[in-house]
Amino acid sequence: xxxxxxxxxxxxxxxxxxxxxxxxxxxxxxxxxxxxxxxxxxxxxxxxxxxxxxxxxxxxxxxxxxxxxxxxxxxxxxxxxxxxxxxxxxxxxxxxxxxxxxxxxxxxxxxxxxxxxxxxxxxxxxxxxxxxxxxxxxxxxxxxxxxxxxxxxxxxxxxxxxxxxxxxxxxxxxxxxxxxxxxxxxxxxxxxxxxxxxxxxxxxxxxxxxxxxxxxxxxxxxxxxxxxxxxxxxxxxxxxxxxxxxxxxxxxxxxxxxxxxxxxxxxxxxxxxxxxxxxxxxxxxxxxxxxxxxxxxxxxxxxxxxxxxxxxxxxxxxxxxxxxxxxxxxxxxxxxxxxxxxxxxxxxxxxxxxxxxxxxxxxxxxxxxxxxxxxxxxxxx
Length: 381
Fold this sequence. Notes:
Elements: E1 20-25, H1 27-30, E2 31-32, E3 36-37, H2 39-54, E4 58-63, H3 66-71, H4 83-106, E5 112-117, H5 125-140, E6 144-149, H6 163-173, E7 178-183, E8 188-189, E9 199-200, E10 202-203, H7 227-238, E11 244-248, H8 252-256, E12 263-265, H9 274-282, E13 287-291, H10 293-300, E14 311-316, E15 323-327, E16 333-338, H11 354-361, E17 375-377
Parallel strand pairs: 1-4, 1-7, 4-6, 5-6, 7-11, 10-12, 13-15
Antiparallel strand pairs: 2-3, 8-9, 11-12, 13-14, 15-16, 16-17
């Protein structure tokens, strides 16, 4: 367990002094379609992570590559496009990948723990807390958690989509001091390098990203991410007070030892958890609840739960447990949250006080429509 104190990492030079760092590595940095896992590349990454751990920094590794690692054992010549085949490849490749990580860290006397997550694990409060407790205990026991999306069971509807965003949510979940993203490019470029694009050493605000051209995916053909998702991951963590760093996997030893390489994304917002980050940035909304001025202030400024009394209209078709927007009459969205009622139930209770509902409909209705614990504020009013 790290004895360092959490603090703001304001540059790559301060990375070795961090208490806890989440390191994400992409498929293209570890695997190829023809040869599977590159042992040399994987061990180079392990050694670089161990540099941080040797200095007392806790390292959580978010690793892509399970599907790519499963292609060769299943005699697949390319990454499959259908979900069932992807799940099969992941089921085979996950064991292959973890075996290599286990051997790599064993050279340093470190134990490795496999942690597979789906999006539901970080949005349901019970599993969210369990995931946090499990990871905290593994770190306290000196293990290296190796996290991947549970591709073998995740469906297209519930999956994170890529491990960049999974890494961002993990960094928020663990209140990490920094997120390091390792790819097959050395930095974020303001345009295609082949067309004269230049690397950006720092990104302090959205203004620095104006005019930046982002490619759709990695070049190796084995991953699902690309610069778009890496910048999105950086936006998520920096908006929640955590810096992000981006460089190539080959540069990992230099970056993790404190050298200024790649692109540094400066933090802007205050620290919040993964569930809040998911609600604010990634959740797909199924409808909108329109509220009066008083409810808008209570939700946005006073950080209160949304009660039925403040609701004036319902838009969309949603069920209890879906994510909805909370907006005022002018259309300004103040929050996003998980609703406790369906669109069918709300018309009969909106505009009525909690006491009225309890008296007329029973104690089951004596609850918030959207509880503050299930809400992310989008805009302060």
